Amino acid sequence: MIRNILHYFWTILFVFVLTNCVNKNDNKQIEVNSTASIQYSKGFSINYFDNYTEVIVKNPWDTTKILQKYILVDKTKPQPENLPEGTVVKIPVENIACFYSIDASIIQSLGDEHKIKAIAETQYVKLPFLVAGLKEGKIADIGNSKSLNIERLMDISPDIIIVSSLGSGNLETTGIVIVENMADKEETPLGRAEWIRFIAAFLQKDEEAETIMNDIADRYSQLVEKVKTVDFRPTVFCERKYGQVWWIPGGNSYMAHFLKDAGADYTWKETPETGSLEFSFETIYDKAENADYWLIRSGNDITYQDLKKEFEPYSYFKAWKEKQIILSNTIKNDYYETGMINPDWVLADLIYIFHPELGIQERDGTFFKIMQE
User: Fold this and answer.
1) Closest to 70 (Cα-Cα) out of 38, 49, 46, 41
2) Cα–Cα distances in Å, from 97 out to 13, 157, 175, 203, 247?
3) Which range marks the domain in which residue 248 is found?
4) Which of 40, 103, 207, 253 could be joined to 162 by an S-S link, Cβ 3.0–4.6 Å?
5) What DSSP designation does 357 have?
6) Residues 334, 126: contact at Cβ < 8 Å?
7) Is the pLDDT of residue 22 over 80?
8) What is the CATH number of the domain that holds 129?
9) Is 138 a domain residue?
10) 37-86 confidence digits (pLDDT tens)
């Protein structure tokens, strides 16, 4: 009887000690050494552990949920055991495919453009190194993001392919690691720009990206501080109608933040939406007839007469009559390539137009300029 009791006691003690040791090891395994200080972006986080880096992408449609978790491990070292759940990526990655050239622009700013081996949507490519790489056959054209050339992509066999919130097509069947860049869901210019730190993690360029981002934020903030001194904010409305619908940015959208920071009074600033709003021409005209400026992002160069021919009531707006329409030809310029990661450049263009009295140095209207007659 006593022997059975002692046997039971020692068994319980052994299990307790063993469990306690395992728990201590597990706690050590998941202890975060440091967390990247992400200041402007809401969509991702980076945590550094002893033997791996955890990159978390939040679901932009439900930020209480995780869209993706990447576990980055140093490729020069043996792969750690007992890694947490997530997509394991050996870093630094060497061969990269991109859906869009904005990601290629980010990679170029980090000095790793030579790692880009394939890109989609080449009809929109304007970056010189991409144009040259495509022409010389060093970079492969993998077609349209909605109908990729999977065979060509598989021949290249990139370590990762970077996609956006617009989707990843049928990539799941390829076995290639899909890196989901949700920068386009950020509401502020600096929030989008900070996704350079997300991509940098896969390149082991964390420190470089932090330095670049700090410089961008400093330049942007200096411009915003200058605008705070203005006494008058000109009114502005955006875009033009397509069919019977006129889409404009919501009052808490990316473009609305740009306009506010540039010292303009956006006519729909009170609306809470972060995306687009849908209105009829009549609704837009009732509110924006006497706005000082009209900003249009277009896929081609247009003139005042082009607008009038397209839809004569456009000529009823004050901004049309006084030749105060701001144009960005996003097909000709690289607004969607370098502009997204250099928001201070975009902001400088807008301030130069809205507030010439501030003496902001002209940048030749790189992204935005007054429409030619």
Assistant:
1) 46
2) 55, 9, 14, 13, 32
3) 230-370
4) 103
5) G
6) yes
7) no
8) 3.40.50.1980
9) yes
10) 999 999 999 999 999 999 999 999 998 899 999 999 999 999 999 999 99
